[in-house]
Amino acid sequence: MIRLRARVSARDLDVDLSLExxxxxxxxxxxxxxxxxxxxxxxxxxxxxxxxxxxxxxxLMGARVWRExxxxxxxxMSQRVLLFPHLSVRENVAFGPRSxxxxxxxxxxxxxxxxxxxxMSAFAGRRSTELSGGQAQRVALARALAAEPRILLLDEPFAxxxxxxxxxxxxxxxxxxxxxxxxxxxxxxxxVAALAVRAIGLRSGRVVSDTSIRTSTxxxx
Length: 221
Known about the structure:
The chain is an alpha/beta fold. Helix content is 30%, strand content 25%. It has helices at 35-43, 89-99, 104-117, 133-146, 166-176, 189-195, and strands at residues 2-8, 13-19, 24-28, 50-55, 58-61, 74-77, 151-155, 181-185, 198-203, 206-212.
């Protein structure tokens, strides 16, 4: 079980969430409801006024504990695609495996695998600055999956894709998220229906609903 409790006065956020490990939870709500703020706190990119994050028996954030973002086993794919401009597409995707101790050869192989999955193999040697917005988002998705995080956070993961590009990426995530712990923020109800086991509704920084969508993503894998 995962528990996230956070109060951020500057953003009028006050939430207390319990998430089940091994499933995908969607966080839904109108613009300004606090969805991205929740993910930022979860990832360790925003320090709340008070709160705690407990994953299983491990305290990652609390009154006297602060685990840095790179040591939480959490990867956030944010709405703003932030690829390293000085690295190639392949090097961007290989960064996660490499930083977690895998060899250069293993990291490169992982990068090539995920670039193939997202249809970006032909761009492996290019700089991220040479990519379109949709292409960069595909690479960011490959980088997030290649890192094999304990918890994957996805903030509007298809926002920059054209209409034709969304279905294959949604199908890829539906397959890859089965059995993983993930949190997805999306305005698209089709994303929520295809990917999530549970949906938590936010409004004005507060939880207003908690709905079970299905028993397990494994049923649809």
